[in-house]
Amino acid sequence: MNARPKKSFGQHFLHDRRYIDRIVSAIAPRAEDFVVEIGPGEGALTLPLLAVAGRLTAIELDTDLIPGLQARAATTGELHIIHADVLKVDFSALAHSHGVPRLRIAGNLPYYISSPILFHCVEHAAAIADMHFMLQKEVVERMAAEPGSKVYGRLSVMLQLACRVEPLFDVPPEAFRPPPKVESAVVRLLPLPAHELHDAPPEHLHAVVKAAFGQRRKTLANALRQLLDADAIRRADVDPKARAETLAPADFVRLAKIYGNP
Predict the structure, then answer these.
(1) Where found (predicted)?
(2) How many domains does the chain have?
């Protein structure tokens, strides 16, 4: 029996087998992997992933879905369900408690809180091998956007400084129950190795990027006036008359380091 999707949880259950198979193939789980699924729902991805990997940990907030999911998985593999808000799950601690170096994370993310979930995962990127997410297509476009693009912004910068972003394929509304009003897409995130990560203080980077894009139509000299003056911006080898949308992620790193050491 199919569950009734709840608007309060932003539930849209994937049911089209063609796209389910494509997602599982993109993830390509192995028996030695520790796979974590965010928001398993009715188990459309859970069961195929479990069948290949043999074990899987799922994070589900909706208690009504858990008994059915456990029943369907009983003969497929070892399923462990964490009843929790994913934003409160410590992925680093989860990996450590199970004695694995890194997790593989997947999920059809609720679109209304997709950005907070992405930022939360990035905070634990050192404990994550890769991530495969279904998201609103517009969000995936923002994640992968290059400087100069109309959709390039805070999400683009912060994710690209932590991960390689690889859009994989689109998924139409009719692949879900009920169909969402937007197009969806699957994206792969590969956390950068330690030697490729920036060395700016995270709190300074967040402050600079937030301020810069908070007033994206203004020049950096105006948008960052509470943080950096024009001379400080020049010391970061950035034009104070430029706008945030024209800067590469590395430019924001230099600005953040100047902000931390005026």
Answers:
(1) Cytoplasm
(2) 2
